[in-house]
Amino acid sequence: QHADAAIAAEQAGRDGVFWQLSDTRNEDLERSISLMGELDAALEAGEIEVHYQPKYSLRADRIASVEALVRWPHKTRGFVSPEVFVTLAEKTNRIAPLTLYVLQIVMKDLAVWRNDHRDVTAAVNISAKLLSTASFNASVEDLLAVAKIPATALIFEVTESAAMSDPAGAVAALRHYREIGIAVSMDDYGTGQSTLTYLRELPLNEIKIDRSFVQHAHLNRADAVLVQSTIQMAHDLNLKVVAEGIEDIACLRFLRSCGCDFAQGYLISKAVPAHMLIAMLDQKAKIAA
Ligand code: C2E
Ligand code: MG
Ligand code: MG
Ligand code: MG
Question: Which ligand is nearest to the CA of 130?
Answer without folding.
Answer: 1
